[in-house]
Amino acid sequence: MKKLVFIFTLLIGAYYVSYAQTPSDIYSMFSGEKNVVALDISGSFGKMMNLDDEFLKNVESVTVLVLNDCVQSLKDKFSKEVGSLNTDGYETLIRVNRDDKTVKVLAKGNDDVIKEMLVVVSGQENVLVVVKGTMSRSELMSKSENLSINI
Q1: 64 near 37, Cβ under 8 Å?
Q2: pLDDT per residue over 43-79, tens digit each?
Q3: Cys staple from 60: which of 54, 96, 99, 133, with CB 3.0 to 4.6 Å?
Q4: How would you label 114-128 residue by residue, b for 16+ Cβ within 10 Å and e otherwise?
Q5: Secondary-structure percent of the chain, ordered helix, strand, coil, rounded to 5
């Protein structure tokens, strides 16, 4: 009996792990839908623009998905998919639940360097932003002091 419970638990765990989405999966799933704004900007674009900001020079890519002008069923599907987002290896920097939206900012890296930052907004507004590169945590924090975020 214990063996059956153990096997059943493993099967359920494997199902949920296989169902978990990556940011790339979600981008691929929604980027071709009607009224979805999908941007994929490589870091070489910033280099071509000759940006002076050292922080921006270290960004390798920025991927943005905005579903604000979509039908409600697509927004609901997006909320469900980001709810199953695989966040293993990410640290939650910010999480805000307010009225009809949830905002999460997650980071992957170590104590000094962020390799990937993920911003997920779901609810009435639906946005996914993925920033990849080598970003200094201290520089990111100093830049964030200058930002005003209206949540």
Answers
A1: yes
A2: 666 566 655 566 667 788 889 999 988 899 999 999 8
A3: 133
A4: bebbbbbbbeeebbb
A5: 35, 35, 25
